[in-house]
Amino acid sequence: MSKVFTIAEGLENLGALRTGGQGSVYKGKRTGTIYSAVKLIPTPIHTESGDDKNYRNFQNEVAKLQKVNEIPNPNIVKILSWGVTESGSFPYIEMEYIDGPDLNELLAPPHEKIFSLKELLKVADQLACALAHCHKVGVKHGDIKSNNVKYNIHTGNYVLLDFGLAIMSEEQRRSSIRHAGAVEFMAPEQHEGKMLLQTDIYSYGVIVYELLTGEVPFPLTGEGDSGRNAVMLGHMEAEVPDAIRARKLNLPEDWPEAKMRQEMQVPAWLINLINKCLQKKPEDRFADGPELHDAIVTGSLSATAGTVGTGIAGVSKANIDVLKTENKRLQQQILELQTALSAETIEYEASQMPDNESKITVSKLGFNALVALLVLFIGFSVYAAFYKKDARLPKTITQDSLKTPTDTPAQTPVEQQTDLPANDAYERKRIRDSIKHVTDSIRQAVIDSTTNAERDKVQVDTPQP
Q1: For 34-315, which CATH class?
Q2: How is the chain split into domains, by residue range?
Q3: What would the pLDDT profile of 412-463 be if each residue is shown by its tens digit?
Q4: Of 223, 218, 210, which is closest to residue 102 (Cα–Cα)?
């Protein structure tokens, strides 16, 4: 058996994990200074046995907290141990120490009064992830506020701390809230000592509202009970102030104008989410952490896909108003440009027209129609002229015409017609030939006038009077 040696002072060797030609890997145990955070519960436990009701409740709630750490979550503080203090017999829970500022410190100088949208969405997502993890195992935090969420400077994550209120009884919670609770973050039902899954949702909404606007919806303005009562009344009855207006008022004055415009493009889905979290009735909020986190994921995806928000998922109302204004401005510019071009065109055509003449434009279809009417008119005139000539020719007297009406039987109307002289057939043929010649000549003229495919219209010049 090989000898187990000490690697260095404070670093214990627990045995080899694997060996190879380039070296060996050992399992070590750090025995140096380790920092932790210890939460003391203000209710003493008389005996550490099942006969003590407070001790039983404490054990039950600690068992729930241990479930939270069965599956590690980067946004939840680790529970290291729990027990009862040797002096005073106070129950305690030992938690991982998170090195870094809390949200309350990040909102105070020298930091900006509000969070950037990018960092705000990061906090909203990670804190909702922590609540979803807790609620899945049945743990209600009960004390979510700005100084219970810390930024871990080593990992870059936001971590939910202090599960002390989660292991208190309802009576202990009511007493703690009445005297020392952060009333600005409390849901309306908490003032009656109730703690629901939706209670954590309400406090979450207060935090996100605070990061967005730089202040909580109902700030505490006095130190006494009157100030606390006014805040409680606000949570129970008053309408939540407009978050967009509050953010605009608290924009840092030293920000460039472009950054101010960018930071005011708040996604509509985020405003809707905050409003739902801050509903007075618990049943009107998100049911629990998983439903809250799903809403954030859905909202983020819709914004990435280009759907808004107030009608286009992820696009704010300010974005839509700007686009509408710009669209109207562009349409007005196009209309003015079209009007100017039309005026210039009319002026140019007028300048190109000779002073002593004007032109009448006739379409090809209209010209062909006029020619056709002219052909019909000429043909009719020629026919009428020859017909009148035939009517004036002398009638031929035959022997049958000398007969009296009584000498011949009644004749039909056709037989009563006057016979033409023998040269009538020749005259008729000549008339037809003349009409045909005129018609053919006009038809050829029409064909010649329409065979030119490059001319779409015919201009007929008329002298000015």
Answers
A1: mainly alpha
A2: 1-33, 34-315, 358-395+420-463
A3: 444 444 444 445 566 667 767 766 776 676 666 656 655 554 454 444 444 4
A4: 210
